[in-house]
Amino acid sequence: MKVNGTHYRSLWWDADKDALQIIDQRWLPHEFRVLQVNSLKDFADAIVEMRVRGAPLIGVTAAYGMAHAMRLDPSDAAMDQAWEYLDATRPTAINLRWALNRSRNILRGVTPKDRASVALKLAHDLADEDVEINRKIGIHGLELIRKISNSKPSGEPVRLLTHCNAGWLATVDWGTATSPMYHAHDAEIPIHVWVDETRPRNQGALTAWELGSHGISHSYITDNAGGHLMQHGQVDLVITGTDRTTRRGDVCNKIGTYLKALAAQDNNIPFYVALPSPTIDWSVDDGVAEIPIEERSGVEITHVQGKMADGSLGTTQVTPDGTLGGNPAFDVTPNRLVTGLITERGVCDASTEGLSTLFPDLVNAP
């Protein structure tokens, strides 16, 4: 997408510097900073500290991390060590392990002297694949928005609600939940997006920054406002992203997604999830019982970062001294609450049958 008129991916390979560049998302939406990743520790820290975030982007970053490790030492032992090190960074988003497994499985069949070049090309390929997957998700999601728009009086916007940032910044480009929004806007379909703040890290501010940069009408709302808006007929469609989806269609996403799905069901609002196929975990059935939920630092709850009156960025405590913060980062929305899954191959029911019909080649893949 574009920042001040210049196209950026969320990460890219700088051939002149022979190194990976990332948008350091810790400073957004207030400051746009680019960071070069120079060591395997830098790759791990980028994921843990959420310099990069979003399941697809984490996966691609990890693939570049494997490529970096193979430059330093292309042995089997070093490859396995890098896999373990990067896999331990974050537990919930399945794209991380998917990318690491894909890298290691391919590199095992390559002679050590060729591993560095093969690993780097693979990382480039995964980045390009992610862009194309998300573009196609947008095309399929566009038709859902167009259908609603066609049922409205001329000029009345389709009102969408989204949670967290499943946008360009959470992927290499386009985003998942936002891709249909970008496609609709570019097709001159009037839309307005309700953007949940998404405490505690306020990733909704990233979504608002993205949408504003693209010229899309939007409002930033508290996490608890969505149900109220649905009750008063101000939401036509909910689209969220996902960090891991089970083979039966249970969806694990940023904490608070489950509550949005419950409110949507109670108010007969369609609730769709934008799902790139690498985010499907075919080894898991019951998301509530089987998906590990990351517990992040309580400081993310007790403190907030923002722009101060003098324009500088700072952090302030919002809780009484001594109060602990509980911080589960994700929740699971059961498939019964999901109207459908928007994938790069089309839209399907959130069910084993729906997913296996669209992805018969992946159901039994190792």
Task: Please tell me about this protein's structure.
With 366 residues, the chain is of the alpha/beta class. The protein has two domains: 2-128, translation initiation factor eif-2b, domain 1 (Four Helix Bundle (Hemerythrin (Met), subunit A)), CATH 1.20.120.420; 137-358, 3-Layer(aba) Sandwich (Rossmann fold), CATH 3.40.50.10470. It has twelve helices and 18 strands. Helix 3 packs antiparallel against helix 4 (94-107). The longest helix is centred in the middle third of the chain and has 39 residues, at 112-150. The chain is globular, with a radius of gyration of 20 Å. The mean pLDDT is 96.
- The ordered string of helix (H) and strand (E) elements is EEEEEHHHHHEHEHEHEEEHEEHHEEEEEH
CATH H-level superfamily of the largest domain:
Translation initiation factor eif-2b, domain 2
Mean pLDDT: 96
The total of beta strands comes to 18
Q: What CATH architecture label of the largest domain applies?
A: 3-Layer(aba) Sandwich
- Summing up helix and strand content along with how strands pair, one would put the structural category as alpha/beta
Report the CATH topology name of the largest domain: Rossmann fold
Gross morphology is globular
- Helix content estimate: 25-40%
Query: Ranges with pLDDT <50 over ≥5 residues?
Result: none
Neighbour order of strands in the largest sheet: 8-7-6-9-12-17-18
Main traits of this protein?
Rossmann fold, methionine biosynthesis, 4-stranded mixed β-sheet, 366 residues, 2 domains, amino-acid biosynthesis, Methylthioribose-1-phosphate isomerase, 7-stranded mixed β-sheet, alpha/beta
